[in-house]
Design goal:
This protein is an all-beta fold. The protein is built from no helices and eleven strands. Strands 2, 4, 5, 6, 9, 10 and 11 form a seven-stranded mixed sheet that branches. The chain has a four-stranded antiparallel sheet with strand order 1-3-8-7, with no helix packed on it.
Amino acid sequence: QVLLVESGGGSVQAGGSLRLSCAAYGSTYCIYHMSWYRQAPGKEREFVSAINEFGITTYANSVKGRFTISQDKAKNTLYLQMNSLKPEDTAMYYCKTTPCEYWGQGTQVTVSS
């Protein structure tokens, strides 16, 4: 069993920055990839970014060049540095693990214009 705890969300103005964290607790042996997803009100959950066990990263086109995913394996913690935030980035952000699939409870990001 794995528990994921996200933090770092908040309210910022457009152009601002936030850094999200996702700490993993428990049996992390089955975690090879970690990723961030987000869900805005009335919309489906969408992929934001991922990092695999080799440190290879992928990003959604909408965040490429603005967001940076990273991880601290010693701390079992995933990060998402979000710069140049836009109102359309407003959503609940979730971290997810694979192949053992676990989701965190989410952290809210609100960007005002």
